[in-house]
Amino acid sequence: MAINVNKVYRTVLSILNKEGRGFLTPDQFNRIGRQVQLDLLDRAFFDYNRAVTKHSAGRAVNDYGDMPEKIQEKIDPFYKAADITLTNGVGSLPTDVYKMINISITDKTIQLEKVSKKDLSYLLSSPLTKPTTSFPVYYQRTKSDDPPTSDIIVEPAFTDQSWSLGNLLCEYIKVPVDPSWAYTGGTNNAYSWDSGNSKNFELHPADEVDLIVKILGYAGMVVKDPTIVQGSSGEEAKLIQLKQ
Q1: Which of 36, 49, 84, 227 has the most CB atoms lying inside 10 A of its own CB?
Q2: SS3 of residue 3 by DSSP
Q3: Where are the domains of the chain?
Q4: What DSSP designation does 101 have?
Q5: What is the pTM of this model?
Q6: 215 vs 82: CA distance, rounded Å
Q7: Cβ pair 136, 112 in contact under 8 A
Q8: What values do phi and psi take at 51, rounded to 5?
Q9: What angle do CA 96, 173, 77 make, to 5 degrees?
């Protein structure tokens, strides 16, 4: 599923130019689009949690009104799985992790529990809580790379070859690919869309209205038109109210 980047850009421009309020360059649009796409993905987790809470409280509607399922459909396309190879208990996480779901051994018979580094010393201090190959744990460590990358440190380190671990399976929500309205030209705002090098938004089609409204909000700040910002904020508030 995707939302056509050219359609969104043309819609935004048509609204901005309706009363000569300014022009949003492709580079400005691409930067704003990237941020808005991340905003909407992050909001989907919040909306899902709220919908599940209502469902658990007995206020659920099935079939077409099943909101947890509908919101999950927005998140599922970003699901990804990757193998992690351990070396002395240390493995590198994929570089496109947005939100971790689960880490397990490859056949999923054993799941690793995530702990904080400060709590690990307490777990290791007692035979009753010390991690084992049947109940392993891990903590995450961010490295000072550019861009930042992360490792996991697993306890126990699984150096005992009699225990066949193999690779770990990392299941996660990936970072969306940055949208891009690619172009040729550019003289006097005469941009020609380069469809072959453009990248669409990786969002569910149901998010198209939200996407345009939020981009317009940022665009209003770029062109320094408070009426656009106010209008966008008002429309966004209405959309949020409808979803509650």
Answers
A1: 36
A2: strand
A3: 7-76+207-243, 86-166
A4: E
A5: 0.79
A6: 32
A7: yes
A8: -65, -40
A9: 110
Phi, psi for 85 (deg, rounded to 5): -95, 125
List 84's β-bridge partners, or say none.
168
Mean pLDDT of 71-88: 91
Residue 212 CB neighbours (<10 A): 21
Per-residue pLDDT, 109 = 85
pLDDT, tens digit, 9 for 90 and up, residues 6-41:
999 999 998 887 655 567 899 999 999 999 999 999
Tokens at 215, concatenated = 């981009």
Distance of CA 116 to the CA centre of its chain: 23
In the block, tokens 């320094």 appear at 224
Measured in whole angstroms, how far is the alpha carbon of residue 185 from the centre of its chain?
32
Please write the tens of the pLDDT for every residue from 123-136: 888 888 899 888 89
pLDDT tens figures, 159-189: 544 444 557 899 999 999 999 999 998 776 6
DSSP β-bridge partners for residue 201:
3
Distance, CA of 141 to CA of 124 (rounded, Å): 18
Q: 233: which 2 tokens?
A: 């904020």
